[in-house]
Amino acid sequence: MISAVLSSKCWAVIPAAGVGSRMGSQLPKQYLKVAGATVLEHSLSALLACDFIEKVIVALKPLDKTAAAIVALRDPGVLLVEGGEARSDSVLAGLAALQGLAAPDDWVLVHDAARPCVAAEDILALAQQVSSSGIGGILAVPMVDTVKRAGADNIVDQTLPRDELWSAQTPQMFRYELLYDALKSATRQGLGITDEASAMELQGERVQLVAGSASNLKVTVPDDLPLVEFYLARKNADTNV
């Protein structure tokens, strides 16, 4: 178990109601097996290994029959709720389930179901930095590739200075009430929110970047699975040393 003493209680939400169309699989990507377990189980296990997390809320697709076979979802530290069509809808459903449980100033970690390689140490580093500073933040890694902005017909319009660019990851950690209000506001405005940090930025809130690891990749296309297998095998080998 990973232990920490934070300034307030901490909860977690995993949006897991998506279908992952770019994976081209009959099964949603969170239910694909890799390194002996589903992608979702690996992601969930990383959060359950953190004893400073009070409970993990997992938002599933309504009438999701595949989830019934996943033993980890019956862990007493897990609460299941129905998610929505968009990722932000599922996160909102998870936050709604925390009403009456979480205090306004409690922390909430939101983690993608499709990031199975997240290291518990990185979750801990994020939680400690955010808690000690009082400023919400996200795991992220500096961009190493040269980044181009495309114009019409995929003609390069601009080369962006990569020393200012980071690739956002999850978990993303913010105060419960602030995050809940920010996501509800973005939804009312019909804004397409792809991560929690974007909603917070729209509210004028500061968001800090906490260095994560390139291994914390998001499963999106079939070619990601062999790399996930490699990282998980290495992670298990380190654990068993």
Could you characterize what this model shows?
With 241 residues, the protein is an alpha/beta fold. The protein has one domain (10-227): Spore Coat Polysaccharide Biosynthesis Protein SpsA, Chain A (Alpha-Beta Complex), CATH 3.90.550. The protein is built from 6 helices and 11 strands. It has helices spanning 39-48, 87-97, 120-133, 176-188, 196-202, 224-240; strands at 10-16, 33-34, 37-38, 53-60, 78-82, 107-110, 137-142, 147-150, 156-160, 166-175, 208-211. A hairpin with a 5-residue loop joins strand 8 (147-150) and strand 9. The radius of gyration is 18 Å and the shape is globular. It starts with 9 loop residues before the first strand and ends with a helix. The mean pLDDT is 94.
